[in-house]
């Protein structure tokens, strides 16, 4: 009996030592992942209080960066002194490893879903050589069916057509049937299907980028991009459910090659192939007075938190205005402080978001940020409809548009894509779009939370730092 008891004690001791060592190793990994404070604290508390539950979850969801420190392989070199595009936005982006500002032409901004759908189908139908499409959601609905049929037709016509669909996003879209696409010759990859590689810690790193690239590097090259997934609610809606307000754009010219390079890297990662070299170096710099922009990649494939760093820098550099729009707003401390300080020093800071989004937890979690912003003088506006657009306008120096929300998932976890426009014409167009959308919104009024509300917000922020 004594021997049996001793054996059990030794077994328990060995288990405790093993768990302790594993917790120590994982906590060290958490510290070196450069998380923002709320996420780091959430993981540490979970690992200390509930190690048997938190450890397997961390193995599934814990990895945040898949690249070593240093510049992204997409970087094509920083602007040189004397370059026309070497203003602070381009310099900051280049310092974060992004390609240099590159010319583009024929920008069309789609505030209307029907116009966006027409442009999308024109890009698909107009391709003559290659067609690459990346999306988070491909809906099992009329829009998804239309896009799929057009892709299949282009592949049947002899074009190289590739579709990159996020593994989780596919399920959120109702698991559309992809067999017809494969039969038509469309090359298809799912981006990190759930639980496919759980021990690599990549399950929670989703590809939220949305882009369609046609004929990159050729005279007919064209890019369609923005915040819209390929499902009915983003374009035309369904009976009884109007389409969401969103923002997308299409353009032509050398900038398309930067988006093509980014797609190629994502495709190689999803396929388990070696990432190719970049062709962005071959794209010309912009001449004086020529419209210029940069593709801004943010996510696990970037050494830095590119978009968050660019927004923080922009808030500190702003002189007259900062206009932000996002469906979900849960700010980290650094960005929150940058925006509140900008408002306090006289910059007109405005934030536009839906009065009620499609994610209830995000609506609960946002109020701490909104109260802090409003108390500092930020004008927070609530749109009466679902607003899914993502954009930022800083002075007359920078406009950002693309896929990234102003929340922890987009800023620190997701693969995201924004395009940074530097020319006054594009910046003015996005500013006018913002003012038009704000015209239907009401001003947010902050109210001190009650005890239970405050506890509920804190709980959502704690357990939802990965959501």
Automatic annotation (TrEMBL):
<keyword id="KW-1133">Transmembrane helix</keyword>
<feature type="transmembrane region" description="Helical">
    <location>
        <begin position="39"/>
        <end position="61"/>
    </location>
</feature>
<keyword id="KW-1003">Cell membrane</keyword>
<dbReference type="GO" id="GO:0008808">
    <property type="term" value="F:cardiolipin synthase activity"/>
</dbReference>
<dbReference type="InterPro" id="IPR001736">
    <property type="entry name" value="PLipase_D/transphosphatidylase"/>
</dbReference>
<protein>
    <submittedName>
        <fullName>Putative cardiolipin synthase YwiE</fullName>
        <ecNumber>2.7.8.-</ecNumber>
    </submittedName>
</protein>
<dbReference type="Pfam" id="PF13091">
    <property type="entry name" value="PLDc_2"/>
</dbReference>
<keyword id="KW-0812">Transmembrane</keyword>
<dbReference type="Pfam" id="PF13396">
    <property type="entry name" value="PLDc_N"/>
</dbReference>
<feature type="transmembrane region" description="Helical">
    <location>
        <begin position="6"/>
        <end position="27"/>
    </location>
</feature>
<dbReference type="GO" id="GO:0032049">
    <property type="term" value="P:cardiolipin biosynthetic process"/>
</dbReference>
<feature type="domain" description="PLD phosphodiesterase">
    <location>
        <begin position="383"/>
        <end position="410"/>
    </location>
</feature>
<dbReference type="GO" id="GO:0005886">
    <property type="term" value="C:plasma membrane"/>
</dbReference>
<dbReference type="InterPro" id="IPR027379">
    <property type="entry name" value="CLS_N"/>
</dbReference>
<keyword id="KW-0808">Transferase</keyword>
<dbReference type="InterPro" id="IPR025202">
    <property type="entry name" value="PLD-like_dom"/>
</dbReference>
<keyword id="KW-0472">Membrane</keyword>
């Amino acid at each position: 009996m004594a021997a049996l008891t001793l054996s059990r004690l030794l077994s328990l001791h060995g288990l405790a030592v093993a768990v302790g060592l594993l917790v120590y190793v994982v906590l060290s990994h958490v510290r070196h992942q450069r998380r923002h404070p709320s996420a780091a604290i959430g993981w540490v508390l979970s690992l200390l209080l509930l190690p048997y539950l938190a450890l397997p979850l961390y193995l599934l969801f814990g990895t945040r960066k898949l690249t070593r420190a240093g510049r992204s392989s997409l970087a094509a070199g920083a602007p040189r002194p004397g370059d026309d595009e070497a203003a602070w936005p381009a310099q900051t982006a280049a310092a974060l490893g992004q390609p240099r500002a590159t010319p583009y032409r024929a920008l069309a901004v789609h505030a209307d879903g029907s116009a966006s759908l027409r442009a999308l189908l024109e890009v698909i139908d107009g391709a003559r050589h290659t067609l690459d499409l990346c999306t988070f959601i491909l809906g099992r609905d009329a829009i998804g069916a239309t896009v799929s049929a057009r892709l299949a037709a282009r592949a049947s016509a002899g074009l190289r057509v590739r579709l990159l669909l996020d593994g989780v996003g596919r399920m959120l879209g109702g698991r559309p049937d992809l067999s017809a696409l494969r039969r038509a010759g469309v090359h298809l990859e799912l981006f990190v299907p759930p639980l496919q590689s759980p021990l690599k810690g990549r399950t929670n790193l989703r590809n939220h980028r949305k882009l369609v690239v046609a004929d990159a590097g050729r005279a007919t090259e064209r890019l369609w991009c923005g915040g819209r997934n390929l499902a009915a609610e983003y374009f035309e809606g369904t009976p009884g459910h109007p389409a969401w307000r969103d923002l997308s754009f299409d353009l032509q010219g050398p900038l398309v090659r930067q988006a093509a390079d980014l797609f190629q890297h994502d495709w190689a990662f999803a396929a388990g192939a070696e990432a190719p070299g970049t062709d962005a170096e071959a794209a010309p710099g912009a001449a004086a007075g020529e419209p210029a922009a940069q593709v801004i990649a943010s996510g696990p494939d970037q050494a830095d938190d590119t978009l968050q760093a660019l927004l923080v820098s922009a808030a500190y550099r702003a002189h007259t205005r900062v206009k932000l729009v996002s469906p979900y707003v849960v700010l980290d401390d650094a960005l929150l402080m940058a925006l509140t300080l900008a408002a306090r020093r006289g910059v007109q800071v405005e934030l536009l978001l839906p009065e009620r989004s499609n994610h209830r937890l995000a609506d609960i979690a946002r109020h701490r940020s909104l109260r802090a912003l409003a108390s500092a003088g930020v004008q927070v506006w609530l749109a009466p409809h679902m607003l899914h657009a993502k954009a930022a306008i800083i002075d007359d120096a920078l406009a950002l548009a693309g896929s990234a929300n102003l929340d922890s998932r987009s800023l620190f976890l997701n693969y995201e894509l924004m395009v940074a426009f530097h020319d006054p014409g594009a910046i003015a167009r996005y500013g006018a779009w913002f003012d038009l959308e704000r015209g239907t919104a009401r001003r947010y009024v902050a109210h001190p939370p009650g005890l239970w509300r405050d506890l509920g917000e804190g709980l959502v922020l704690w357990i939802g730092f990965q959501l």
